[in-house]
Amino acid sequence: MKLCVFDFDSTLMDGETIDFFAEALGIGEQVSEITERAMAGELDFFESLQERVGLLKGLDFSKVEEISHNLPYMPGAIETIAALKKRGMTVVCFSGGFRTATSYAKDILGYDADFSNALHVKDGKLTGLVGGDMMFNFSKGDMLVRLQNILGVSEAETMVCGDGANDLSMFAHAGTRVAFCAREVLKKEANIIIDEKDLTLILEKI
Predict the structure, then answer these.
(1) pTM for the full predicted model
(2) Pick the catalytic residue: 7, 19, 114, 167?
(3) Is 9 an annotated catalytic residue?
(4) Which of 28, 31, 173, 184 is paired with 37 by a 20 to 30 Å CA distance?
């Protein structure tokens, strides 16, 4: 294998970044309920992302950065990425979450690049708007195919790892498909299933 793509929230990081933001506004339960339904495939990802980010309007960006820089990473994330890179693989993060978290984590966790979304900020506060690379149900698969073409990597040489419904599109273009502590909708399409919060278990399966 030459390319590995990880999801970020609930895969490389233990939790959902947007839920941590919502907790700071006292609307954690409201947002996490929408997140859970989106990850289970019950809601359109684009619509649910817009709705959830809209609820964050007014949150200080300084608080966003503080939370983004203090997220709990998944056990084994650093070790697993290092081991994959030692095998000669390019390791990339695709996230329906936010650059404030994924770009900060890049050098800590050791992946080569991150593709995620950007929260719109005006006068030091979130406006409730969002844009970026990973807004739709199809986004991860679309970006994966483009990366494969650029790097000259085949589906058989590609591994993907995620937990939710918005990872389905990249599962469609990878030979090795890891469902990590995942929703049933994703497990059905996986050929490796890990139900314990330890990413190093992947290394035993590939």
Answers:
(1) 0.95
(2) 7
(3) yes
(4) 173
* Structure confidence at residue 36 (pLDDT): 85
Q: How far is it, in rounded angstroms, from Cα 188 to Cα 34?
A: 22
| Tens digit of each residue's pLDDT (9 = 90 or more) over 18-44 | 999 999 999 999 999 998 898 888 889
Instruction: Report the C-alpha gap between 195 and 16 in whole angstroms.
Output: 17
**First-to-final CA distance of the chain:** 9
Give the Cα separation of 133 and 140 in Å (integer): 8
CB neighbour burial string for 32-68, b if at least 16 within 10 angstroms, e if fewer: bebbeebbebebebbebbeebbebbeebebeebeebb
Is residue 133 part of the annotated active site? The answer reads: no
Q: Number of folded domains in the chain? A: 1
| Rounded-to-integer distance, Cα 131 and Cα 49, Å | 10
Token digits of residue 164: 């939710």
C-alpha span between 97 and 18 (Å, rounded): 7
Question: What H or E segment, with its residue span, contains residue 115?
Answer: strand 113-122
Token digits of residue 51: 């709705």
Annotated catalytic residue within 9, 114, 133, 163? 9
Mark the ranges of the chain whose per-residue pLDDT is less than 70: none
Give the whole-angstrom CA distance, residue 38 versus residue 164: 8
Q: The CATH number of the domain where 178 resides is what?
A: 3.40.50.1000
Measured between alpha carbons, how far is 162 from 179 in angstroms, rounded to an integer?
6
Enclosing domain of residue 34: 3-204
